[in-house]
Amino acid sequence: MADMILSPDARPLMLGTLPISPIAWGMWRLASPDGHDDIGAVIARIEAALEAGITLFDTADIYGAGEPIGFGGAEVLLGKALAARPDLRARMVIATKGGIWPGKPYDSSPAYLDAALDASLARLGVERVELYQIHRRDFLTHPRDVAAALAAMVDSGKVAHIGVSNYSPAEVDALQAFLPFPLVSTQPEFSALRYQPLYDGTLDQAMARGMAVLAWSPLGGGALVGGDHPAAALLAAQGARYGVDAAAAALSWMMVHPARIVPIVGSQSPLRILAARDAYAVQWTSGEWYAVLAAARGERLP
Questions:
Q1: What is the DSSP letter of 4?
Q2: Where is the NADP-dependent oxidoreductase domain positioned along the sequence (predicted)?
Q3: Is residue 275 a part of any domain in this protein?
Q4: Residue 248 lies in a domain
Q5: Distance between CA atoms of residues 288 and 253, nearest Å
Q6: What is the number of structural domains in the chain?
Q7: What is the rounded average pLDDT of the residues 30-35?
């Protein structure tokens, strides 16, 4: 029997009621020390993402903490870019996150989340975001109270849809039990090196519930690009077969999963952002796909 051929699907997928691109661009490194005040450079990155077909833009209030621009810095930069080029906003689905405060570290109390959302909207210079996500679980706030805060955000019109980041399937279940609407997304760390969501129920739950899977660090923190890990070597070889690099193959590897995982590309280079679309060129047989997983695990699959 011929081996199944797997290809990334370039068609939009749904985030609740919103169509989104199969690849997203993330801003966790936007507020870097080199040129963090260069709004022209930020606009160039946004334009590169849009040219690559990316419509989902992922940020968070914590992005910028530890950098000269500080907490909220990435949102400020995005807000300045949108103020300079308001025409870009209509082409973007903006997702942001809250619930982490340096030194606290987590707070999902209703009062905190309400203030955090308003602060994010002010930094972004917008009245509404398409997706608001709890960034990490606050163990000291009952999911009933978190749900009440999130429902109020949607009722206010400030947020279109709600998702979670770094939540376990059990934590998703607990929060969902108190919400009057479905969670539309989950954002785990996932790559060929961080493959636990394949096994811990994260992807299965997302498929069962129809949640979008927004994967952060899809290149394994860079270890899958030019690294000496056996999985990186397989990805580089697979990319070379299709005339693209290991990064494109790494994105493609996760995108062919039936959960239609959305990798969040973190590059701040317009050329590298544009190159994300090379992922659509790479095809896989199921044998090739599982070979990467086996290499990542460092053992033969059972």
A1: P
A2: 23-289
A3: yes
A4: yes
A5: 10
A6: 1
A7: 61
Residue 302 lies in a domain: no
User: What pairs with residue 96 in β-bridges?
Assistant: 132
Tell me, what CATH number does 75's domain have? 3.20.20.100
List, for residues 166-205, the tens digit of each pLDDT value. 999 999 999 999 999 999 999 999 999 999 999 999 999 9
- Residue 147's domain spans which residues? 5-297
> Higher-confidence residue: 37 or 118?
118
- Given the residues 63, 112, 132, 167, select the one marked as catalytic: 63
Exposure letters 191-210 (e unless 16+ CB within 10 A, then b): bbbbbebbeebbbebbeeee
Give the closest residue to 27 by CA, choosing from 72, 85, 66, 86.
72
Residue 227: pLDDT band with limits 50, 70, 90 = confident
Q: What pLDDT digit, counting tens, does each position of 39-96 carry? A: 999 999 999 999 999 999 999 999 999 888 899 999 999 999 999 999 999 999 999 9
The verdict on whether 63 is a catalytic residue reads: yes
Helix, coil or strand: residue 92: coil
How large is the angle between the packed helices 246-255 and 230-241, nearest 10 degrees? 100
